[in-house]
């Protein structure tokens, strides 16, 4: 009997029985809105009237009649009986519906809830019809009114009394609650939240209406015209109309009312992915397989959020796990949706409200607001943006970012056309063309805004993640981190990867080849802009503002930080130092420099540029080819900048660091600057060489590399001009610190002349002519020996003279002298050494001291030979005698200006001072000239004027006499006194002048003690005569004493006899 009543009820609702069209209350409205062929079917009439246009009113009595009819359909046991009969097998399969209490209308609502599981055709048709009836009015949805009554009243979303509002307003009630729900998530103050059970009911209603947009009454009425305009041919069901409307949401022709309704729907999807029918259906199996579990009791739980679903499934895709193509397609659509409209992410609306209102208003469409936020919302406020970027994963497919896609379309078509559309490498290709002619400004901005966030999570670069996940697990222990864990330190994994990327085999475990290539790619991209390096940008924010606020062009910020390395705070200095150290090993990390140097690299350095492991070879090659025609200004400036930066820390020179790191730690532990390290190690090598130690303290491999660094060091300074040479010439006017540096540099250059860039440059041809067989460290000595050759280039000769002047200012700058006189200097000149510090120069005092001892004939043979050479050289050129320069500058200007102005110095200034000895007013200068006279008595070669005048006489009369110790001078004096010998007139005249000068010198500067007297006698040209007189005097005294002794003895005897 129940079945028969159900069938009669069904017929009553269909062609026979009671008809809505027969009711007077609705007859007029029905004739206005409904086609005649529907009048015989109650459900068709009901659907027609409730789907009419919003502005078309129906009579209140008809509205009330429809309400009662729908209420009867859902609650009348007769209709429940129909459901029981039509859906008998389905009810048996669905446990929840089978257990529902009969007679209260719950069975029909339960079937509506589970309609996705209804497979029987007849039952499905029945439930579909009933669904449209149930969803036409929130009061008909089972339990909804009970759960949300208080919230409806509190939020003033509508009346719960029957008949107070028409059929359209009932959809508005649900819309009002949905808007309140999404707004609540976007507000910080949740003092009066929607109750949890009502929240679940709202999301459940949204989920149940997800397949057919007719069921979302507010959206249906808001978008009816837009549906006809954009989605006319889209079949209703399975959420297809929703998706079609979503795709046209930002079209100009889209009505604002529909756009708002669609946005609310999308916001609900972002809170619970099941509100999207197509996404929930397509990814149901994959969610289960990938264990992206759901708690059915908590629809708004984290696992139900769209972002969690996307993160979980994207991680599976990145790891190579199978995710169906249908599900991936749906994910792509919703990732694009989130990227296009920032308002779908409640965290962004909540945390970025001020930025949106202040900077990004009016940019709502096509993802422009989001890019505006990316540009300004960095630092601590970027957490919400970072979460969104992680969810949508634009690195996997650039097309997800519509703003980027549109801005970069022309660049992709030209520069990246060889890459398949949608390939993750498109972004990498765009980065490679950043700051090139092919890049357009808008694309550049959008790209950097996105890369800022991608660079902060290594998983957002799918190629890097795929190639390096094994290495990360093996070397960085990432296997313990959950894919979506917020506890993973930002940037920690990539930092770990790049530390291992440049390890040598001796240093331990390294990255796989594929992973290293990807790490290098990322490093090259990050070098384009400091903002792409998270650690650098975070730690150096203050320093960037302080030192580099005006350096805004590509690559300038990092260069600026490197220029101010000593001024940076310690944390920033460390990270900039580490990056620069990495660049020294692989300069290709500096993509802008490599791009600028492409021409010279192809022409001269292609063999080292193609090697995967750089180890500094490419930069070395670029330095060597700085003066080639292919070298442009940008490349030259970049190479010079890197050379100057390398001087700040020895670690910035990879080969030097690898060869000498242990030696530096052992011998120069507290020194970092490369110049100081090189000087420290060079000084150690020099001292060990001078002391002839058995085993050098600096290792052999370091000594070899040290020589390379010494050769390269000076040209780096001299590139803009003769800067170092200028500093050398103005040494006395420099600050103490700079003076010390220049002196140390000169010390190194004198030890190894090859490091003297100016000398090697000016005398290049002369070295080839005279010194091809000379040892590298003896080049200056060789050039000095050939200085007066007729074939010597005048410029080179001038440079040699400069170096001789430098050497004579301090014995430490003359390594040959230093070695020869290492015993004599402390023995005779210790008092001078005690007066000065190690850092100050001696101004020729020690060499002056040794000259005096040479005249006294008290030096060791090796030291005497070296001092003789210095005396001979300085006798020809007064500038080589620093003490004479110091004390006689004014006298030379007054008495010998013409001689001093001569281009060729042949001893004329010294001769002028000797001749004008009586006219010299300054005592210090007079003393220096007297010393010269004293020195000339010891060796005729020290007196070039006298030696030139007496050259023939020396050959004829003194050829057998060994030079030195005044022997040849004594020979000439004896010849002058011997009337049988006829000397050359010029020689005779000069000798007589010298005798007069020596006599004057003896009067002016008498011997200060017995030793000085003995020295004067021994060095006197009348030495034999003086010695004879002294011997005769001693003999006379002896005889007198003997005679007096005998007389005294005789007197004493006589006294005793008495």
From TrEMBL:
Q: How does it sit in the membrane?
A: Single-pass type I membrane protein
Residues passing through the membrane, by range: 1025-1048
CC annotations in GO: Golgi membrane
Instruction: Give the location in the cell.
Output: Golgi outpost; Membrane
What keywords does the record list, in alphabetical order? Glycoprotein, Membrane, Repeat, Sialic acid, Signal, Transmembrane, Transmembrane helix
**Cys-rich GLG repeat windows:** 57-119, 193-253, 322-381, 438-505, 510-569, 630-689, 733-791, 858-921
Listed InterPro entries: Cys-rich_GLG1_repeat (IPR001893), Cys-rich_GLG1_repeat_euk (IPR017873), GLG1 (IPR039728)
A GO molecular function assigned to this protein is: fibroblast growth factor binding
Chief site of localization: Golgi
- State what protein this is by name: Golgi apparatus protein 1
Originating organism: Gasterosteus aculeatus aculeatus (three-spined stickleback)
């Amino acid at each position: 009997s129940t079945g028969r009543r159900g069938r009669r009820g069904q017929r009553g609702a269909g062609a026979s029985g009671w008809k809505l069209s027969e009711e007077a209350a609705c007859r007029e409205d029905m004739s206005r809105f409904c086609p005649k062929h529907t009048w015989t079917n109650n459900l068709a009439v009901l659907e027609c009237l409730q789907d009419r246009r919003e502005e078309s009113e129906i009579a209140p009595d008809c509205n009330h009649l429809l309400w009662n009819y729908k209420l009867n359909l859902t609650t009348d046991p007769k209709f429940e009986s129909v459901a029981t009969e039509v859906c008998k097998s389905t009810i048996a399969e669905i446990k929840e519906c089978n257990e529902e209490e009969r007679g209260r209308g719950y069975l029909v609502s339960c079937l509506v809830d589970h309609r996705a599981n209804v497979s029987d055709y007849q039952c499905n048709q029945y439930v579909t019809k009933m669904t449209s009836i149930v969803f036409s009015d929130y009061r008909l949805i089972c339990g909804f009114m009970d759960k949300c009554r208080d919230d409806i009243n509190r939020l003033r979303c509508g009346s719960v009394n029957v008949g107070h509002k028409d059929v359209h307003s009932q959809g508005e009630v649900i819309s009002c609650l949905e808007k309140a729900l999404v707004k609540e998530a976007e507000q910080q103050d949740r003092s009066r939240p929607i109750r949890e059970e009502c929240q679940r009911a709202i999301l459940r209603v949204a989920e149940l209406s997800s397949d057919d947009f007719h069921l979302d009454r507010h959206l249906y009425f808001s978008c009816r015209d837009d549906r006809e305009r954009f989605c006319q041919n889209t079949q209703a069901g399975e959420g297809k109309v929703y998706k079609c409307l979503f795709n046209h949401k930002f079209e100009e022709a889209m009505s604002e009312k529909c756009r708002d309704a669609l946005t609310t729907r999308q916001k609900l999807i972002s809170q619970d992915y099941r509100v999207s029918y197509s996404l929930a259906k397509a990814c149901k199996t994959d969610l289960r397989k990938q264990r992206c579990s759901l708690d059915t009791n908590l629809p708004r739980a984290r696992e139900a959020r769209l972002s969690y679903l996307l993160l979980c499934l994207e991680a599976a895709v990145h790891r190579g796990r199978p995710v169906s193509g249908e599900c991936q397609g749906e994910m792509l659509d919703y990732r694009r949706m989130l990227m296009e409209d920032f308002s779908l992410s409640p965290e962004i609306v909540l945390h970025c409200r001020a930025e949106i209102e202040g900077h990004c208003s009016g940019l709502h469409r096509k993802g422009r607001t989001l890019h505006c936020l990316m540009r300004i919302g960095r630092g601590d406020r970027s957490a919400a943006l970072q979460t969104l970027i992680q969810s949508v994963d634009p690195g996997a497919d650039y097309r997800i970012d519509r703003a980027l896609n549109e801005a970069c379309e022309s660049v992709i078509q030209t520069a990246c056309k060889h890459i398949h559309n949608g390939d993750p490498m498109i972004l990498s290709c765009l980065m490679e063309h950043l700051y090139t002619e092919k890049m357009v400004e808008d694309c550049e901005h959008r790209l950097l805004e996105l890369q800022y966030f991608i660079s902060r999570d290594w998983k957002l670069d799918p190629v890097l993640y795929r190639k390096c996940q094994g290495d990360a697990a093996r070397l960085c222990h990432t296997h313990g981190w959950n894919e979506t864990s917020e506890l993973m330190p930002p940037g920690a994994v990539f930092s770990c990867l790049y530390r291992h990327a440049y390890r040598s085999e001796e240093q331990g475990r390294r990255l796989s080849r594929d992973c290293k290539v990807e790490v290098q790619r990322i490093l090259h991209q990050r070098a384009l802009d400091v903002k792409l390096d998270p650690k650098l940008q975070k730690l150096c924010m203050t320093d960037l503002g302080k030192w580099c606020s005006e350096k805004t062009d590509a690559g300038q910020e990092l260069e600026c930080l490197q220029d101010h390395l000593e001024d940076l705070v310690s944390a920033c200095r460390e990270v900039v130092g580490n990056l620069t150290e990495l660049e020294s090993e692989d300069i290709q990390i500096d993509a802008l420099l490599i791009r600028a140097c492409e021409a010279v690299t192809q022409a001269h350095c292609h063999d080292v540029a193609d090697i995967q492991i750089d180890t500094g070879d490419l930069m070395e090659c670029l330095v060597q080819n700085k003066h080639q025609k292919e070298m442009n200004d940008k490349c030259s400036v970049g190479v010079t900048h890197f050379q100057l930066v390398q001087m700040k820390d020895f670690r910035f020179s990879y080969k030097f660091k690898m060869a000498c790191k242990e030696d530096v730690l052992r011998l120069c532990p507290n020194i970092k600057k490369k110049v100081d390290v090189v000087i420290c190690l060079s000084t150690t090598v020099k001292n060990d060489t001078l002391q002839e130690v058995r085993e050098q303290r600096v290792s052999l491999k370091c000594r070899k590399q040290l020589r390379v660094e010494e050769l390269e060091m000076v040209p780096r300074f001299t590139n803009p001009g003769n800067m170092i040479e200028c500093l050398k010439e103005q040494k006395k006017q420099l600050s103490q610190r700079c003076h010390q540096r220049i002196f140390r540099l000169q010390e190194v250059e004198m030890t190894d002349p090859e490091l003297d860039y100016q000398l090697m440059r000016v005398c290049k041809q002369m070295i080839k002519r005279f010194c091809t067989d000379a040892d590298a460290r003896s080049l200056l000595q060789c050039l000095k020996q050939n200085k007066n050759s007729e074939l010597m280039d005048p410029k080179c000769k001038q440079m040699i003279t400069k170096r001789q002047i430098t050497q004579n200012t301090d014995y430490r700058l003359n390594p040959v002298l230093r070695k020869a006189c290492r015993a004599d200097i402390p023995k005779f000149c210790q008092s001078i050494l005690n007066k000065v510090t190690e850092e100050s120069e001696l101004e020729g005092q020690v060499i002056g001291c040794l000259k005096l001892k040479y005249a006294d004939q008290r030096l060791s043979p090796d030291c005497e030979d070296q001092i003789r050479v210095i005396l001979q050289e300085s006798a020809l050129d007064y500038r080589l005698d620093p003490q004479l320069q110091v004390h006689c500058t004014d006298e030379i200007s007054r008495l010998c200006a013409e001689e001093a102005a001569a281009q060729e110095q042949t001893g004329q200034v010294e001769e002028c001072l000797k001749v004008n000895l009586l006219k010299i007013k300054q005592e210090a200068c007079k003393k220096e000239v007297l010393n010269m006279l004293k020195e000339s008595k010891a060796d005729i070669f020290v007196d070039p004027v006298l030696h030139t005048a007496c050259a023939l006489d020396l050959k004829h009369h003194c050829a057998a006499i060994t030079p030195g110790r005044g022997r040849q001078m004594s020979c000439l004096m004896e010849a002058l006194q011997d009337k049988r010998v006829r000397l050359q007139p010029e020689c005779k005249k000069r000798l007589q002048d010298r005798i007069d000068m020596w006599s004057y010198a003896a009067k002016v500067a008498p011997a200060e003690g017995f030793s000085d007297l003995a020295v004067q006698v021994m060095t006197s040209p009348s030495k034999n005569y003086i010695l004879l007189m002294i011997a005769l005097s001693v003999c006379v005294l002896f005889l007198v004493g003997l005679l007096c002794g005998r007389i005294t003895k005789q007197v004493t005897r006589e006294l005793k006899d008495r």
